[in-house]
Amino acid sequence: MKILLTNVGEKNKGNSALIISTIETLKHYMPKTKFILIGGGNGEINNLKIEKQFSSELSIKKPDKTIKTFYYLFYCSLIRLIRILGFNCSIKKKSPLYYYDYVDVVINSGGDHFSGEYGIAVLNNFINLSYSIFLGKKVILYGESLGYYKNKNINWIARIVFNRVDLILVRDELSVKYLHDNHINNNKIAFTADPAFLLEVIPESEIVTILKSEKVDIKKPIVGMNPSGLISRFDKTECGNDEKIIQIFVKIIDYLIEEKNVNILLIPHDYTPYYDDRKVINSIFEKSNYKSSIFVINGEYDPRELKGIISKCDMFIGSRMHATIASTSSLVPTIGIAYSHKMKGIIGKMLGQEKYIIDINDFDYQKLLILVIDMWNNRADIKKELEIVIPLVKEKSSLNGKLVKELIMSES
């Protein structure tokens, strides 16, 4: 069995966490499976090289790419037709379509690649999925948050594409509602959980080594934070920008150090050049008044190492989905800053932590301060809540692999 995982990027550690967890879960159920990764990166995940994925694009400004994209869609359809007619037809290895055709199953495990938060750019992901559909491959959406497109034409395209994939595994109830409301075939939908809840953490000795190398003082309680400049893009208020986000974090940090006598640990979770969390983290550090009590993770670590670092926190405030999955699955009380329905659906509703989710459009110092004080005072009780719910969520995460195996076995 050969499985292709698409839209892979090693610099975004949330994406890496998804890919690693997906591979390990599927290996548990199908040990002999061979995995191939394609994406925009050129590194490795889980000792697997990321092959270059053709960058599909529909753009008036880039007519050459648009023409090539339509050509590849036509070519995939032609290949399938020739095979239906009983003739052998192969795609050359040098073709960008080779890996789509080489495998038995194509899986997108991208988290929110098919959500409405990214505007018209989501069309490119639908095209990448369509190559596999046109070639007649089994296509699976694995652990996704999707839907809620602001453009009715994209919604129409989504309905067509989603009704043609073989299995849709969604990680939040809002995505299930979207699919049902838009008449997506109910028989192929399953409500599971994000694969990364199953991500293994590195051994304690390795965590200690990393913290020592980063010169982190662990003698005091630690409040971890994952600020991201990305979220300001989704702030629709008049004053929504990076500087607003930075100032709120600075004031919260000052409060925690002054009033709670804690150390602050600023942790990046995306190292993609344009969206590198370390940029906004460094700005926060430079503007803070208590630098001796603030520690910054400067190195680049894989998601298992980052989860280990996050697990040492007594409380966590996260902007990125998988930073908060790393914290909550480590039983760390967590405040999530939501820029889409995924944070509300997963950390909020699934984990029973709705009280501690703050929408980016409501994000201000006073509202965050109220949540911080509440969580700090009740962190022991919140940890007990997580101790109960996380094992149940991990079972739902494992269900992803079981359902994929059942699909493959039923049609083999």
TrEMBL record:
Alphabetical list of Pfam families matching this protein: PS_pyruv_trans
One GO MF term: transferase activity
Domain Polysaccharide pyruvyl transferase as annotated: residue spans: 12-341
This protein's UniProt keywords: Transferase
Protein name, as recorded: Polysaccharide pyruvyl transferase
Organism of origin: Methanobacterium lacus (strain AL-21)
Keyword Transferase (UniProt): yes
UniProt xrefs under InterPro entries: Polysacch_pyruvyl_Trfase
Keyword Acyltransferase attributed: no
Source superkingdom: Archaea
